[in-house]
Amino acid sequence: MNVRRGAAALAASAVLCAGAAPAALADTAPPASPSAPPVIPSGLYGKADPTYDGVWRQSFALLAQHTVGVKPAAQAVDWLVGQSCASGAYASFRADPGTACDDKTMYDTNAAAAAVQALTALGGQDAAVRRTVDWLKSVQNEDGGWAYVPGSPSEANSTSLVISALAVAGEKPAEVRSKAGKSAYEGLLPFQLGCSAEPAADRGSFAYQPVDGKLLANPDATAAATLAGLGRGAAVPPPAEDTPAAPLACPAPAAADPASAARSAAQGAAGYLAEALRKDGHLTAVTPGADQPTPDTGNTADAVIALAAAGHEQSAAGALEWLKANSAAWAKGSPAALGTLVLAAHATGTDPKSFGGADLVAELNATGPAPQGADTGATTVESERSGGSGGQNVWWIVGAGAAAGTGIGILLSGRRKKNQL
């Protein structure tokens, strides 16, 4: 849920283009010089190139601010609303929102889903939210799921994000059906590794997409699917009751309805996340060019939120402490990362203004226009936290072959490896 956009468009482009003309890609010389990055709009949070993540990072910045009682700047909200196409669709970023969207616009369901969550929480944008919800419904695949780029095969990450957005906006995902009659939950649940999966430790997890017909456990997809199955968005209040996470129930009990089946699947997914966190207090991922897994800060934060949403705050306690000690470098200057940490703190009843020695709220506010009622003369906040790396740059070129591998949901969802957005 946090730093999603960076690799997403690159990966999607690689996948779409590689299938069409791999030889041409191999033989084409790179451009002599990169094009100039777009100018950062005054209402946008973050100082890095927003081409692939502008809407995403803005949405999570605004959602996190609202969650802790900060009223975002009006120009920041207006910027997000203005990124929408007339149909309600969103691209990852539109440098000139005054130009109408057309058949050359690369639409982004993840950006649209994040915007729905933020604008619903802020209120006062019912018409804009309704248009985007209707657009998301219009690009549902026949199997009930969604893809990052509409028209592509469904995958668990995008399907989960859209389901969460629909639920936050007041829709019932079990009743949102494709033209073929498949519900949103029917589009999601086939990605879960069930009671016959091997190794047994992977049972309950979700895959990004099948690889050669096989589902491979993907923590990123699993965290997102946990929220979706529970009908929750990223802004999660602390659980009223706290119980230990349990493994996927096997054999699976009969579900009375699709929503009940989704909730059971979400609890199994939470059990997988809790066990994956148990060893080191964090999740790991193998990044391109590396031969060993490294800590995955973004997915760890997502897992904390997912476990809290499922009522398993204590199962997330170790990961929360790891984040306090190791997330500073990953989050510095990144509104999406800082926003996600604020949401993780909120979900566990932790003070985001005292998170491992840092004031996450002040750091987040400092990445964009001053919130309403704030002192506009405030200085930039620098984190005093020590520790961990966990922040890798996402400007990777992801090939079509790599996109089929385990963990690639992390790359195609783009949430993970950008420490400056």
From TrEMBL:
Keyword hit for Transmembrane helix: yes
Region ranges (Disordered): 234-254, 367-389
InterPro entries in the cross-refs: Terpenoid_cyclase/PrenylTrfase
Superkingdom field: Bacteria
Biased composition regions of type Low complexity, renumbered to the chain: 244-254
Signal peptide region: 1-26
Residue ranges of the TM segments: 394-412
Keywords for the protein's UniProt record, in alphabetical order: Membrane, Signal, Transmembrane, Transmembrane helix
Name of the protein described by the UniProt record: Squalene cyclase C-terminal domain-containing protein
